[in-house]
Every structure is written in structure tokens, then in C-alpha cells.
């Protein structure tokens, strides 16, 4: 069994459902004891494990650079029906506004509107078709991130791949695109896949303490590890 931890499965709980999340994190820690291999999407997440850290491979989630790449902003806006003149800030709410700190994002945006009346906040709430996300990122002027904590946020890497500036701390208002593609080139899905496959191959070759083979049928076991809790979902 190979487990992938992505964030909420180990990070402290925020907001509602705290008891359920606490139990979930405890079960994640216990599951790590039975794993032949462990993947964490960040070094900080690895440090949240109570044990078996020596088995951890830190591998961030990959980005499909065939989908997320720079496009002319105005072209993307015409596709979405947006005004060319507006200053658009996108914010990824996901399925948990509390964890993403939507309240903080809205408060920050309210201050920004005092200086830029043409600014507007565009929320990505998890209901958009996947094909629309790269268009949104190319059409926007910046991505706002205010989460208290994250594992390896895909939206940040996807924004950089589209050349979209990311605002999360005090920054200068350069007013231009960025060469983020250089920052995420090593995070392409192809390169990340190679690293993940290497972890599975190492797990197949490992032997638990009782001497039995940890994986009898590599296809079946890897299939199990990719579904449900065994893959940290």
C-alpha cells in the first residue's frame, strides 16, 4: 500500500466539522504505519507525520502544461464575455470557504476596491468545468491566496503556468504577467508521474516484518492504492 497525503488529511482542522477532521487525521497517522510507501506533497506536510518519515518521498502534485500555458489575456476575456477594462482578481474557494479564508480575501479585496473602482473579485467555487479553469487564469489579472495553510495548492502552480501573478503577501504592483512557467516546468505531470511510479516500484520490492511479500499482484494492489483511503483521499 502506498499512501499519498495532500493536506487536510494531516493539517490541523479549521471551522466546522473539527471532530470529524481530527479523527480523520488520527486515522491517517495510523495508516502510515501500514504503508509500504508514503508520498507527501510538501516537506511541511511530511513533518506533520508522527512516524515513518524516513519512508516519505516529497512529490508535489503535477501540472498538465499542455492545458495550463500562457494565452493572450484579451483573447481569454472575449471567450468568457468579460470586460477588457476591468481588473479581475480570481480566488479559489473550492469546497471549503473557511479553510481557504474567503472572509480574509473579501476583506482584502474591499480595501483594494477603495483604490481601484474597476476591480472585481471572481470566485472559483469548484463547480466550473475543468476546461474553463485555464481560461479563467489567463483572463484574470492576479490570483489571490489567503489560506491559513495548504498542502501543495494546484491553483498556484496552474496560475504560474499561465503566467498569472499570485498575491498572498505584501507585493509590488508591477501590473504585468510573470514567467511562472519556468518555476513549474519541473512540476509537469510527466515528470511527477515518473517520481510517483518510482515510489510504487520501491513499494513492490519492499518486504514487511512478517516476511511476506508486501504486494502479490502489483496491478491489483496499485489499483487499490489509487482508490479511496489507501491513496490518502
Task: Please give the count of helices.
Answer: 10
- Output the CATH class name of the largest domain: Alpha Beta
Global shape: globular
Supply the CATH architecture of the largest domain: 3-Layer(aba) Sandwich
Using only C-alpha atoms, the radius of gyration works out to: 20 Å
What would you give as the CATH superfamily of the largest domain? Glycogen Phosphorylase B
Q: Which fold name corresponds to the CATH topology of the largest domain?
A: Rossmann fold
Mean pLDDT equals: 81
Major sheet characteristics? 4 strands, parallel
Structural class of the helix and strand makeup?
alpha/beta
What amount of the residues lies in strands?
Answer: 5-15%
| SSE pattern, N- to C-terminal | EHEHEHEHHEHEHEHHH
How far apart are the termini? 13 Å
Total number of distinct structural domains: 2
The beta-strand count equals: 7
**Percentage of helical residues?**
25-40%
Notes on the protein architecture:
This protein has 233 residues and is of the alpha/beta class. The protein folds into 2 domains: 2-62 and 188-231, no CATH class; 73-186, Glycogen Phosphorylase B (Rossmann fold, 3-Layer(aba) Sandwich). Helix content is 38%, strand content 12%. The chain contains 10 helices and 7 strands. The protein has helices at residues 18-32, 43-46, 73-80, 97-100, 102-115, 133-139, 154-161, 181-184, 189-204, 218-225; strands at residues 2-5, 37-40, 56-58, 87-92, 119-124, 142-144, 166-167. The strands form 2 sheets. It has a 4-stranded parallel beta sheet with strand order 5-4-6-7, sandwiched between helices. α7 (154-161) links the parallel β6 and β7. α3 (73-80) packs across α6. The longest helix has 16 residues, at 189-204.
Amino acid at each position: 500500500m502506498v499512501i499519498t497525503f495532500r493536506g487536510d488529511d494531516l493539517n490541523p482542522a479549521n471551522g466546522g466539522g473539527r471532530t470529524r477532521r481530527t479523527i480523520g487525521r488520527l486515522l491517517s497517522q495510523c495508516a502510515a504505519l501500514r504503508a509500504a510507501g508514503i508520498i507527501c506533497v510538501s516537506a511541511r506536510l511530511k513533518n506533520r507525520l508522527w512516524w515513518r518519515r524516513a519512508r516519505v518521498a516529497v512529490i508535489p502534485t503535477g501540472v498538465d502544461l499542455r492545458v495550463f500555458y500562457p494565452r493572450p489575456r484579451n483573447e481569454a476575456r472575449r471567450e468568457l464575455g468579460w470586460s477588457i477594462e476591468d481588473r479581475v482578481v480570481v480566488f479559489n474557494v473550492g469546497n471549503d470557504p473557511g479553510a481557504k479564508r474567503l472572509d480574509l480575501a473579501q476583506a482584502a479585496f474591499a480595501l483594494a476596491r477603495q483604490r481601484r473602482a474597476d476591480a472585481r473579485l471572481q470566485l472559483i467555487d469548484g463547480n466550473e468545468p475543468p476546461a474553463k479553469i485555464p481560461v479563467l487564469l489567463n483572463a484574470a489579472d492576479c490570483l489571490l491566496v489567503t489560506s491559513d495553510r495548504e498542502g501543495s495548492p494546484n491553483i498556484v502552480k496552474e496560475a504560474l503556468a499561465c503566467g498569472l501573478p499570485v498575491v498572498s503577501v505584501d507585493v509590488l504592483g508591477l501590473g504585468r504577467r510573470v514567467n511562472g512557467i519556468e518555476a513549474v516546468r519541473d512540476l509537469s505531470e510527466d515528470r511527477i508521474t515518473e517520481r510517483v511510479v518510482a515510489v510504487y516500484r520501491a513499494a513492490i520490492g519492499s518486504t514487511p516484518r512478517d516476511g511476506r511479500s508486501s504486494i502479490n499482484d502489483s496491478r491489483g494492489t496499485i489499483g487499490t492504492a489509487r482508490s479511496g483511503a489507501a491513496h490518502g483521499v
